[in-house]
Structures are given as structure tokens and as C-alpha cells.
Amino acid sequence: MNRKEIEERFKSRNIDAFLKKLFPFSACENAVIAEEIIRLCNLLASHHSSHFGELSFLLKESLDRKHPTSISPELVLHKIADSRQLGVKYIPAFVASTLLRTSYDRSKFDQYKALTLISITRLSFMGKHDAKIKAICDEVRLFANGQREAMAGYLPDINKYSFPELVKQFTQLTDREKSPIKSARIINQLEHYHRPYQASLQWSEGYTRSVTTKQFRQAGTLTVSPRQYLNDEGDSLIEIKQLHFGSRNNEIWQDEDGLGNDNRSLTIVTSPSSVNKDYSLEVMKARAIQARIRKKNMHLPCDIYSFTNFEVACLVQTCLKTIEVGDTNENGVAKLLMLMLLMGNTIEQLRKTKVQRSTRKSVSGFIRKHNLPTHKLRAELHPIIENISDNLSFPLPKLITQGVNNFQFRDIGEKEIKAYLQDINRKHHTHITLTKVSGYLRQKLSLEQIDPVIIEIICGTDIKAAPALYYTQLPYSSILNTYQRYINFIASVNRNPELGILNNLPTQDNMLIGSPLHIRTNTLKSLFSELNQLIQKSLKSPSSKFSEECHNNVTLYTQLIMGLSCGYRPVTGWFGKLEHYHLATGECWISDKEKSTGDCSRVIVLPKTALKVFEQYLTYIEQAAIHHGNKSQAISIRYHSVLNSQEHLFFYREKDQVQETIPSAFIALVDPIFPLQPNWPRHHIRSLLLENNIPPELISAWMGHQGTGKHAFNQFSHFNRKQMRTISQEINNHLIEIGLERNIW
Known about the structure:
Oligomer: single chain
Strand content: 5-15%
Helix content: 40-55%
Organism: Photobacterium pectinilyticum
InterPro entries: DNA_brk_join_enz, Integrase-like_cat_sf
Largest sheet: 4 strands, antiparallel
Structural class: alpha+beta
Protein name: Integrase
Distance between the termini: 80 Å
Number of strands: 14
Number of helices: 30
Keywords: DNA recombination
């Protein structure tokens, strides 16, 4: 046999093996698979199908197996899942998968499904591509189940590109050095599409590799906080938090809500001056450094180590005199110190900052990038969310930027800077350090009760360092105004108005920054009005008042209002039990951080409008328990268990079965109505409270965010119920504004 005959023989074997994998069931179930394949082959766009000669073969084999059947693709998929054979029969499971989320673009999904089918057909004929085939089959099936929400926004528009162009788009998205995507998880998911498509386009040869079972495969995640310095001697700490082992496939919103948890953490303290070999003394010193840094982060007015106004004036006055002198060795040092003071950055951070240039290519300011995972949501959601920008430009004083080409200052070392500061300290009897200079922006704005989100955006902090960064939407103008007030303050301390003259930047007044999930008022009005109409329609008829549809709509309506009213994180048993609520005072006890160490619960006060809806829901539960008493004992018992606090408040009903409130069940049920991630109320309300000038400490307390190592209402807390009622009243005004007071069913 020659080489060509051998290749044909192996191709024939590969085809037979593929058909056995594609049609592994009885004739009746295979007919369902064949019918779906015929549908996909007929709808595949010509700019994709023209690249595949295997299409006619696939159609012929499917037509041979087609005959009338009453079985649906969903039943075939359930059979595979129930028999726990998804890992073996992944090809028919992929073919039988149907799009469960009604808010998704079905035509786009069908095109991807059809292109995937013809691609894996070619790869199967070629052989040795089993890993790629399984990966893309599982990926499309999970997408159909709604388990790829974060990745969905990055999928290229398949109708817009030809097959080679589509592969090129995937190549750009999965290039880890140049890709705009920061999440390694999303890039990996896109690779599951990219590799099979590219291999089928280029007719790449497959390969096999041996993988032992000795590899450590347990999932785990950790967050390393930015290094925090206590002084110029190098005493510092980093904190490794959230070291846990759980699901690898957390959605983006789960990662957001998890950042506020204080799971077991490890704090690493470094001190170059430490030479003592006594372990107990080293531990005591490390704890003292940690306590000092935490106290420093509180920016207390009584902190004797803080940067005083006198020290600021001495530094600015000396630096400006040096700059006025002109081209000296100390000129660059003075400008570097002024940039650290105005930008709130250390030397290392400053050198990594991107420069904003004018039309003449001279330095005019600096650029911050505030990129969130929620910025790239799928196109179907764009009509209900805000358009967000992730680039911010901040102007710098002309006096400082003259003669500056970049922020590198390569000829200036730490030794020269410290020597310059020592001269200032000796002359004015001060104690100015690099740590004080780089931390003054945070110190000053914190004392002025500026929201930490604004401070961290100006300083360019990593979003993982502050959970509130994920949740907040605010106009660029408010951030810029805060920054300009800070510059004016620095100028006023030295009584030098010239320092307040900033470079001109392009106007960006209407630009929004941060989370796109601060929903427009009219959109929320439409949402609750539509839900209310569905409920009212069901309540008019005795036969439908206690139906599954009415129960689920009432539950969703109440849950959405409670989400806006109390900021409860989406968890199993969402919104707790009835015993967690005190209806007379409207107080609600929330414990949505069970993974945390210690007690991290909080108490908030429900708005009056939300309390009315909640009481109405309990009335419905009482009536439903009586109604189902003689019809369905199991459902009646579940209703009674809500009232006696034996079970959680909310549950769903599906085909005479009780479905407990878990985030995935909520997502599937609310998708046809409002298909956003389940924690969108937390994004919306935090942005709303910031708009209404609620103090940041109160907002953090309501959100359940940790600050300075302690939670609100923990020991030494100064918060009280009256302050919580302030937030409750603001939210109540908002609920009235979106029409909920009129729409209580």
C-alpha cells in the first residue's frame, strides 16, 4: 500500500468513528440528532459554508437517518446528563443543546453552533483532534445553558466576518500580550473556539500527548493586595487574601461579591532593619508594623505621623524655587517630588503611568485606565445599560510639565531624592519622607470625606484592592472636579496661583466611568410596571392566582425590590428567613458572607415602600399555603415553612416541584424580563447613594464592605440605626421615583 492508500484507509476509519460518536443512540433518538444537523447545515451562512466540502456528506448521512419522531433535543440531552455521560457523548450533547436564555441572540448562536458542527466534522475526519473537539463542544453547550455570560460579550459577530476573518478576530482576542481582555479565564474560554476553528481552516495536523494523573488539579484563587509602606526605611506589608478552593467556573459577579470577604488571609511583613533572631520579638514587631499601617490607612486627624500642612508648604515652596532656577541637577528631583504629590503615586508607580500629550506632543497630564469586567457585556444588553468609558485624562500644572518628556526620570535615583528631602528637613525642622509625599493625596481627600472610589481612580489603584470600585458609576466631571480642587488646595498652601494653571485637555464632560449597571430610572419604571401587570393579570383569575407563573412573578418582583432595598449578595438562601426581619421597626439582619472568618453580619433598615411589598408577599404566602392545603401537600408545607422560619423566604415552582432560591435559578427565571447579572442592584444602589452625597463609611456599611480590617457594626464601630435610616429614606425616595408605591399589587 502506498502513502495515499494508507491515508485514505485511516480517513475512512476516522469517518466511521465520528459517525458512531455522532449517532450513538437508538434509531428514534438518532433521528432527533439528524434533524438538528439538517437544520444547522441549511442555515449556515454561505461565507462560512463555502470553506467546507464536508457539508454535503454530513447532510447525506443525516437525511439517511431522518424519520418522524416525537422526541425533542432537550430529552436527548437530559438522557445523556442523567446517565452521567456528558464527558463521553459530548458531540451529541452539543448538537442537542438548545439556547435556554431568551435574551440571547438566537440567530448568532445558531451560526456558531452550525460552524462548530462542520468544523468538528473536518477535524474528526483528519484525526488526532479529540481534545479540541471536546473542548469546543463543551464550550458551546455551556454557552447554551447560560454559563458563559462574561465571555459572551467578547465573541466576534459571526455574521459580520467570513470564516478566515473570524479566525483572525479570535487570534487577536486570544493573544495574551496584545489582547484587550485582562481575564485569563475568558481568554481560555475563547481559545476553545479559536484552536478548532484555526485547525479546520488551516488543515492542521493533530497530535496526542500523555498526561499523568499526578498533576495537582484542585481549583484555587487568591488575591494579593498592593504593597503598603509604613516609612522610607522599607517597613511594609502585603496581604494574601481569599485563599480558598472551590469552583473554577465562578461568574464575574461572584468574584466581585467575594472580594469583600475576609477569608483566611496571610499578611507578610518586611522590615530591612530587622536583625533580631528572637522569633517572638520578630512577631511582635511585625504585628506592630501591621497595626501602624492600618492606623495610617484610617487617616485620623490625630495621627502624629501624618503629613502636616506646614510640611506640605515647605516641600512645595522649596520644589517651586528649584524649578524656577531652571536647569540644575535638582530640577528633575523637584519635579519628580511634585508629580508624586499631585498624582498620589510612589516613584515606581509614577514611572509606569501613561503620559497624556497635547497636540504638540508635549506632556500635558496623565492617563488612568479604569477597566471593569462588566464593561464588555453582550450586545443584546446594550439598550438597557449605560455607555461607559475606561480612559480618564487628568491635567497637570504647566509649571510642572515644562521640560518634562516622560515620567521615567531615569537619571534620578532614590538616593538623590532622599538627599533633597534631608536638606528641606534640616532647614525647616520637618520630617518629610517619600512615603508621606506619595500618600498625601489619599490622606487629604480621605479627611475631606471624598468617596474612596474617586480617590483610588485618581491614584490608579488596582480594582481588586477596593471592592467598591466594581460597583460604582460616576461622571468623569465629578472625578476631575475633585482632582482640580486638590490641585487648587496645594497651590493655596503655598499661595502660588501659578501652580493652579493646568494644561488644557479635550472636554469629556458627559463621559461616565465605572459600572454600567447603574440603570436609568425610565428603564426601571418599565421593568417593575411590566412585572406588576403580569401579576395583576394572574390575580384577577382565581384559577391562576396561585399558579406557578403567578408565584414566580410575585417572588421575582419581591426579590428585585428587596435587592434594591437591602443590598443582599446573591447567595444560596438569598434574603434569609422570616426570623431575620423585624417588621415593626423594618430592621433586617443580613449574613451573606458565611465563608468569612468571624461574624460579618450587618443590620440595615428597610425602606417603607419595600416593607409594604414584603408584607404583601407574606400575605400571598399565607393564602397560597391554605389554597394548596388540599391540592399539593408538599407545596403547602413549603409555604408554611416560610411563615414559621424553618426554610428560606423565597423559592420557585416548576412542574409541581419546589426549586430553592439559588443564583442560577434566579438568573434562568429573570432572563426573559431583565437579563442582567443578579447583583446589579448592588451596583445601582451604591452609585445612587454616592450621587446623593451619603458618607462613604455609611455606604460601605450598607454594602457590607470591609474597611481597615474591620466591618461596620463590629467592635469599636460608631455607626448607629439613625444613620442607617438615612440610607433607607434615600432608597425609599428612589423606589417612589421609579413608581413602586403605585405598583404594589
